[in-house]
Each structure stands twice: as structure tokens, then as C-alpha cells.
């Protein structure tokens, strides 16, 4: 009987030891898990802060890109307007130059025709003085 009591005592002691060990392991795991949760919560908090900063940076970059694009568009429109005005001005200059040239050619032509007529008249008179008919030649 004693032997059995001793075995029973031993088993109870073993059970208490196992129970105690399991409790200790449980508490250790619970502490580790709690620490890990706290660490992950801190990391999540930091990542959220970084995300907010990154989103703000992204908004700033988008605004800056839109501003630069608007400036480029305004510059292109301004240059296109200047180009159109230059084209109109050059067209006016070309028309004025061509009109002036046409006018000068017309005046020169009249002068040549007058000289030519005078020259022909002189030659006719010379031919007639020699007794020749200009139409026969």
C-alpha cells in the first residue's frame, strides 16, 4: 500500500511538475506573444505615419507636376500665338514687297516701252531719210 501511495504521490508530484512546467511555458509564450504584438503595433503605427507622409509627398508632387504642365501649356500657347502673328506679319511683308516689285516692274516696263518706241521711231526716220521703207525690211 505504501508503495502505491508513494507511486500516487510521485504521480501527483509529476503532474504538478508537468502542470507547473506547462503553466510556465504558457506564461512565457503569452509574454513573447504580447511583446510581439506590441512590436507589431509599433511597426504598424510607424508604417501608418510613413504612409501619411508619403501620401502628402505624392499630393505635393502631383500639384507640382500639374503646375509645371500648366506652365508648359501656357508657354506653348504663347509661342503658338507669337508664331501665328509672325506668320501674318511675314505674309503682309511678302505681299507688300511683291506689290512694290510689281509696281516697279510696271514702271520699268513703261519706261522700256517708251524708249523702245522712241528708238523704233528714230530708226524709221533714219530709214526714211535713206529712202527705205521700214515695213519692207
Automatic annotation (TrEMBL):
Region called Disordered, residue ranges: 1-30
UniProt-annotated location(s): Cytoplasm, Cytoskeleton, Flagellum axoneme
Organism: Collichthys lucidus
Family label: Belongs to the DRC12 family.
Subunit structure: Component of the nexin-dynein regulatory complex (N-DRC).
Biased composition (Basic and acidic residues): 1-19
Protein's UniProt keywords contain Cytoplasm: yes
Role description: Component of the nexin-dynein regulatory complex (N-DRC), a key regulator of ciliary/flagellar motility which maintains the alignment and integrity of the distal axoneme and regulates microtubule sliding in motile axonemes.
Biased composition (Polar residues): 20-30
Name of the featured protein: Dynein regulatory complex protein 12
Keywords on record: Cell projection, Cilium, Coiled coil, Cytoplasm, Cytoskeleton, Flagellum
Xref: InterPro entries: DRC12-like
Amino acid at each position: 500500500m505504501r508503495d502505491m501511495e508513494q507511486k500516487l504521490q510521485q504521480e501527483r508530484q509529476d503532474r504538478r511538475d508537468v502542470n507547473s512546467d506547462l503553466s510556465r511555458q504558457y506564461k512565457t509564450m503569452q509574454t513573447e506573444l504580447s511583446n510581439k504584438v506590441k512590436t507589431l503595433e509599433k511597426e504598424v503605427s510607424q508604417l501608418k505615419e510613413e504612409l501619411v507622409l508619403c501620401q502628402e509627398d505624392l499630393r505635393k508632387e502631383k500639384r507640382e507636376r500639374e503646375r509645371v504642365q500648366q506652365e508648359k501649356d501656357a508657354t506653348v500657347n504663347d509661342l503658338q500665338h507669337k508664331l501665328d502673328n509672325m506668320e501674318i506679319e511675314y505674309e503682309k511683308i511678302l505681299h507688300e514687297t511683291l506689290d512694290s516689285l510689281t509696281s516697279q516692274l510696271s514702271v520699268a516696263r513703261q519706261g522700256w516701252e517708251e524708249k523702245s518706241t522712241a528708238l523704233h521711231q528714230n530708226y524709221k526716220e533714219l530709214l526714211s531719210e535713206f529712202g527705205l521703207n521700214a515695213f519692207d525690211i
